[in-house]
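Question (not urgent): is this output format expected?
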Amino acid sequence: MRADLNVPLADGEITDDTRIRAAVPTIQALLKRDAAVVLVSHLGRPESRDELSMRPVRDRLAKLLSVPVKLAPGVVGDEVAAAAAELEPGHVLLLENSRWEAGETENDPELAESLAALADIYVNDAFGAAHRAHASTEGVAHHLPSYAGLLLERELNELTSLRDDPERPLVVVLGGAKVSDKVGVLERFLEIADKVLVGGAMCFSFFRARGVGTGDSLVEEKGVGLAEAVLEAAERSDCELLLPTDLVIGDSFSAHAERKEVDGIEVPDGWMGLDIGPETTKRYAEAIAGAGSVLWNGPMGAFEMEPFAAGTRGVAKAVAAATGRTVVGGGDSAAALVAFGLDQAVDWLSTGGGASLELLEGKELPGVAALGR
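Got this back:
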């Protein structure tokens, strides 16, 4: 079973186990059918086999599952094959970090075949990695009877229904740093949404495209041209594109920075925009409250620093309180909901970042396309 157990770590400790908990229902469903489950996942971007072991993940999984979870000595090889062969029904073997093998990200056929040799059936439940054609997400599916796990199935159903058949009005809230990361989703939802609300550092690419001074704010230079094209598309669209009309700025990227609220969007030299302002937060919250469906992907500012968290917190509270269908995607948005204690107040909290965006754009996900072939 391919799971997405790629969780954040600090000093070797898991700081958010959302993705591990999301994988548990499929693992439990397999164990109840007397399966012996061989789990594989990546963890971060290790540069060597001495980095980012799956051991903390194994420890957390064992507590959540209340069954033995053995950590394999590697990803593939004779010792791993022996451990898989000896695995008893109802027990779990967690392979080491799949990215310890160079062939993982290269979708190496030999690695995919070696992984397939460990099992009789392949289950992909790693929605967060389904947009990558890797050995453990796409390659292995060609060697075994392959199926979607419960989480992957739910992710696909939730996101495609929101994209293809939403309750109206559909309000999409997009934040984050880079227009280039979201341009496909922006263009897609300008065609099908009723309102698109933009926040986060990427709004400064839009302001720069309009000739507005952005001071020392983070501006993705290649995003300026993309933002200009999006603004032009919005003028031709029936969808309303909303940008911030006021800002919270700081004299440095620091929780201890001097903070000012600006009635407008011009950022003075020596200052940087770090959050949407209170009037924008109120306007966005009102739009969300009136929605039949809400999609939120990306924070409104540097929410990890309390002086600049109000915009993201206000949007999070509005999404949590909305009476319409609410779907939140992206690691930072999910982290914000968890930080504000609101993660249980939305209808669906997606485990996918890039996978969510690509699915919403209408792209084919390699890890999904390979199943059942």
